[in-house]
Structure formats: C-alpha cells, structure tokens
Design brief:
The chain has about 325 residues and is α/β, with parallel strands linked by helices. The chain contains twelve helices and nine strands. The two termini are about 15 Å apart. It binds phosphoric acid mono(formamide)ester. The site of phosphoric acid mono(formamide)ester (CP) has 10 residues, from helix 3.
C-alpha cells in the first residue's frame, strides 16, 4: 500500500473537532481511529519512515507536565506525517514568569499554528483551550481526567492481540482514583463492548467509581485473585506517588504483595496478557520478570502509540477529505 492509496481509502471524518477525551466518542469513531492507525503503522516499518500527509500543518506540543512516551510519540507522529512541529515545556518558558495558560496558548496561536497537543496537571485544561483559541486541541493527559490517546493505543493493542474487543474481560488494577488512563479506558472499552473489572485498594477507588460509566459491564473489587479469574487482559496502573494528596497506601511492598502481578499469577493464568501505560515501577505494579514476560505487550503499546497519534492528527487535521494524488 502506498501513501496515495492510504489517503484515498481513509475518507471518513470524526464527528468531533477535538480530542478532549473518549467520553462521547462513538464505537464508529473509535474503530475509525484504530483502522486508520493500522494503515499508518505500516509507515513505521518502511526504510524511509515519512509520508507527506500533513505537509503545511503546524503542530505545537505543549507539555506542562513530565512525559517520555506521549511527548516523543506525538513528536514522532508529527514528523512521520511531515507536519511542522514546535515543542513547548514549562522549563525555560515565560510560564516561570507567571504567564497564564490562556495567554501562553493565545500568543503561540498568534504565530499561526493549526493544532495543539496539550498535557497539563489540571483536569479540563484541554477543554479550556478550546474556549481560548481556534486551533484543534488534542488532550495528551489532563490531571486525573482523561488520557484519550493512551486508551486508543491500548484498544489498538488489545484489538490486534485478540482480533476483537467485544466480550473480552479486562481488569484494570491499581490507583483508579488518580488515573486518567483508567477513565479513558473505561469509556473506550465499554463503548467497544468489553467487560471491565476495576481492582485496587479501597482507598484508591473513587467513591463515584460505579458511576464512571452508565453501562452495567463494570465490576469493582479489592481482591486481585477474584479480579484475575477469567480475565483476558490485566492492565496495571502506575502508582502515582506525585498525585497522592494523603498517604493512601500502607507501603509499596504491601501494595505489591496484595495488588502487584507476580510470576505466580502468570503461571496460574496461562493466557493472561499484561499491559501497563508506563512508566512502570518495577517490583510495585508488576514483578520485574512480569514486565519482561512474553505475554507482556508493554512495548507493543508504545509502538502503537505512534500509529494512533498519527491517525488522530490526520483525522482531526481537516486533511482526511483531501485527495492527495
Ligand atoms: N503513558 C504515558 O502517558 O507515559 P508518559 O507519561 O511517559 O507520557
């Protein structure tokens, strides 16, 4: 398949102008992103990993929080698509002199840009930017709210591993309360028909956990053995020490004993697939041998992250309707 064929075949548009979260994205929209990502993923395995699809589009990556995977994979996705990219991080910027988020983004937009990728510690920051500027906004993680491209790359990884998502049993383990990854995955997985079990210490399960989704295929437990029974995919979440307002964990050692996935779990559940959004605290969420296990697909998730971000940038760029022959 060449690039021209790729662009001609991908001619359906998302109903949304921005990607602020997966809440409200339909199964058709999610499937469109996944099928588009599969086509763009092929570009990553070419000798020259670059196509002209977003030539002329300028994307600014605004990262107000630390990131390795999301920041680099957005930048790589933009470069693979031939977009012009500019990277912003708080350090070295006028945010340190007190400039607000609104003023920062409006000044950057005044330099003539098309799309903004934003990561910020405040829930709702991405939505706020849609009120400030006319650029397309993509949420790269806003506080404990959503991390939609992480969930999309997780869905792509699951869908490719099993060939389907509907009916799979997915257990999300750990710090559900502080996890934007959990929120986005709950929306995405339930929209595609998966059954979800949320498992974690009671102190890290939000009180509104049952209402995170209106659907009835979400189950909650604090018993890891129960959560892994009949489970197809275990998605371990990072313990976010930086977001713990109060001491909600007895100790990391005790957390690992109760909620960490160990080799004994892998041996007991012979088909269990392990996922983690990263960065992994080895020996806490996952035993180190589990991180490196052949049924851990953590690095597949990272590769899929580039493809999913290429797909989202393309579908939201307004170029999806353009015949580039
Ligand atoms: N999964 C994820 O968001 O990782 P980073 O914080 O490194 O971007």
């Amino acid at each position: 398949m060449n690039v021209t064929q790729t662009d001609q075949q991908i001619n359906t548009r998302l109903a949304h102008d921005h990607l602020l979260g997966l809440e409200g994205y339909s199964s058709e929209e999610i499937e469109l992103v996944l099928s588009t990502a599969r086509r763009f993923r092929e570009v990553l395995y070419r000798p020259i990993r670059k196509v002209p699809t977003l030539r002329g589009i300028t994307v600014v990556n605004l990262f107000f929080e630390a990131s390795t995977r999301t920041r680099i994979s957005f930048e790589l996705a933009e470069k693979r698509l031939s977009a012009d990219t500019v990277n912003f991080s708080t350090s070295g910027s006028s945010v340190l002199k007190g400039e607000t988020l609104k003023d920062t983004v409006q000044n950057i937009e005044a330099m003539k840009i098309d799309m903004v990728v934003v990561r910020h510690r405040s829930p709702g920051a991405a939505h706020f930017l849609t009120q400030c500027v006319s650029s397309t906004i993509i949420n790269a993680g806003d506080g404990a709210h959503e991390h939609p491209t992480q969930a999309l790359l997780d869905l792509l990884t699951i869908s490719d591993r099993f060939g389907y998502v509907e009916g799979l049993n997915v257990t999300i383990i750990g710090d559900i309360m502080h996890s934007r990854v959990a929120r986005s995955n709950i929306h995405g997985l339930t929209t595609l028909g998966a059954n979800i079990t949320l498992c974690g210490p009671p102190s890290l399960l939000p009180v509104e956990v049952e209402s995170l989704t209106d659907r009835d295929n979400v189950h909650v437990t604090s018993n890891l053995d129960e959560a892994l029974e009949g489970c197809d995919v275990a998605m371990a979440l990072r313990i976010q020490l930086e977001r713990q307002g109060s001491n909600r964990l007895p100790s990391l050692r005790e957390y690992h004993e109760q909620f960490g996935i160990k080799m004994s779990n892998m041996n007991q559940h012979k088909d269990l697939v392990i996922m983690h959004p990263g960065p992994v605290n080895r020996g806490v969420e996952l035993a180190s041998e589990v991180v490196d296990h052949e049924r851990a697909v953590i690095l597949d998730q990272v590769t899929n992250g580039v493809a999913v971000r290429m797909a989202i940038l393309f579908l939201l760029s307004g170029h999806a309707d353009v015949d580039q022959t």
